[in-house]
Every structure is written in structure tokens, then in C-alpha cells.
TrEMBL record:
It comes from the Bacteria. InterPro entries: Cyt_cd1_C_sf (IPR003143), Haem_d1_sf (IPR011048), Host-pathogen_enzymatic-act (IPR051200). This is Protein nirF. Residues 1-22 form the signal peptide. Pfam families: Cytochrom_D1. Keywords: Signal.
Amino acid sequence: MKTLFNTLPLLIPMLLAACSQADLRATGDLGVVIEREQGSAQIVNTSKPAMLSRIEGLGDLSHASVVFSRDQRYAYVFGRDGGLSKVDLLQDKLAKRIIQAGNSIGGAISQDGKVIAVSNYTPGGVKLFDADTLEQLAEIPALYGEDNKLSKVVGLVDAPGQRFVCSLFEGNQIWLIDAKNPRQPQVQKFQNIGKQPYDALLTPDGHFYAAGLFGEKGLALLDLWQPEQGVKHILQDYGKDDAQTPVYKMPHLEGWTVAGNWLLVPAIGRHEVLVVDTRDWSLARRIPLAGQPVFVMARPDGRQAWVNFAFPDNQTVQVIDIKDFQVVKTLQPGKAVLHMEFSPRGEAVWLAVRDEDRVMVYDTETLAETARLPAQKPSGIFFSNRANQLGL
């Protein structure tokens, strides 16, 4: 008996260690699926598709987006109600949540992972927060015009050099925000860049920021290596003589829409994707599609682009082979395919099928379905490898 008592202090740590080993999970295997109507998010395993847990109490997620901490442990969820939620992916819990504005549509995390930036509709502007504590570090009102009106802020992305870039919808501006000192950020403003920039993308190398224009034809392009050259317009002649058509849903530029030398842009209100040669920013081709594209996302190797559509064609997904810019497959995953996300190396793609209450996984080589997971009105899908990518 004495021997047993003597060995207990040694056995207990070993037993606890064994229990903790059984619960270990790798952060690179994790992702988040937004369940928009429930105000919840699933934490999922992406290598062996499965739901691990559900995090509730995240507020209005009708237009939610997610970024990840540098170590991939935390997911920061930006809600439409101005909520900023920090989710612990390893402990399956909501670590902290604040309401930082009245209406928010997205955010970004700085290059060093220490600062969270949020773009707001109400009040218009950008706020900076400490990534660890969610303490507010700075507020930058999106003021424009002689009477200092507030503009909605869209297209917020992180950029090299501890910077953020965003666009002002009503203000017709692009802002380059230097956040090296996040309590006193410096803003470089580019005015009259085009009417109503509605969304934007950063090229994967962090070189160019392109904002789509809703109020006129074309894109506004800023060279972040040479910002002193100002903003230039590209594609301003595209569709200028075409009849105006109704827009059922604003397309999104955010996503992996750059494949090699090609930029693939969803055409507003039209059944086509535009292919832009990034060497001279000329329109190289127009690819006819089944409906009005919303997301055009390139597989990580740049060989394919997957496209989903606005209503009434949102049950359809089309796959474009970048080699010859041809649609090689039309899929019918189910009603209301809202978002897509590729696995880190692109062998699989996950689809959020809202009205079928499921997430579907496809093999990108065979284009066959390989798995499906139940989800409550899923919308955005975000994998933790985004932590190591610019502009996402």
C-alpha cells in the first residue's frame, strides 16, 4: 500500500497527459462554417470532413466574414450587427465578443497578426483592435466631401508593411492605412477613383489592389509598390454599349480570383466572367456562364476557377478550365450555393448549400462529390490556412 501511495504522484501526471493527448488537434486541419440564421458557427475538420463543435451566440451573421490569428488558433468573426467575436478553435468556445459598431461587413488582420481592422457601414469608418484583448486602438471615420459625410467602407484587406487598404462606397475613394503605430494610424487618401466602389481584391503577392465600381464601368487599380502614381482605371470600355440589366446580387471580388497572369472578374449584372491580362490590364476574354456570377474563386494552383451564381441560378456551380477558359463542368449541388472554399492545396472544394441545410465536398480532379455535412443554413466557409495568405 505504501508503494502505491508513493507512485501516485507520478501516475497522475501521466494519466492527465494521456487524456490531453487524446484531445489534441492540429490547427492546420481546422475551418469555420457560418450558420447565418442561427448566429452560430461550426468548427470543422477539413482533412477528414467532420463537424467538431458548434459555437453559438455570434449575433447577426447575415453577411459574416472570418480571419484567423497567425498561429491559426483563433477565428475572428465579423457580424452584420457590428459584432466582433474571437473564437478559440482548440477549446471550442467563444473567447470574447464585443459590439463595435451598428453595421459591419468585414475585416482584416495585420501582417504581424497583432491588429484587427473592421470596416463599418454604420457609422462609416474603420476601427483597429488589439488581436489579443479586442481593446480598441483607433477609430478612423470615413469622412468625405465638404460637409464631412460618413461613407460606408468596403473592400478592406490587409497589405504588406503593416498596412490596410479599403474603399469608400459613397466617398469614391481608396484609403491606404499605415498601422505600424496602430494607436495613431496614418491614412493616405486617393480621391475620385470612380463611382461607388463596392468590393475589392488584393493580388496574392500584395502588389495590386483592385476595386470594382458599381456606379460606372471598369475597375480602380492601385499599385501598392508605387502608390505615388495614384489610381488608374482599367476596363472602362467594357460593356459601355451594352443594355443595362437588373443586378440580383452584388458580385464579390474577394477570393482567389487571380490565376497566373489572369485576373477573373465577375461581370456586374451579366452572365459572364471577364478575363483580364495582368501584364497590361487589358480585357483578354469574356467567358459566357449560366447566370450572374457572385464568387469566382481560383483553385490554389490556378488551373481551375469555380463560380457560383445569384438567384434564380444559385443552385448551379460551374467549373472553368483556365488552360483554355472553357466551362468544363456544370454542377447542381442544391438550392442556394452561397460560398466556396478550397482545401489548402486545392484537392477538394467545400460548398455551402444554404437551402438544403448542408455543406458538400467535391474532388476538384474528378469533380465528384466526396462528402456532405449537415449545417443550419450555411453561408461562408473559411479554412485556417487563410492565416498565411495576404488579402483574405
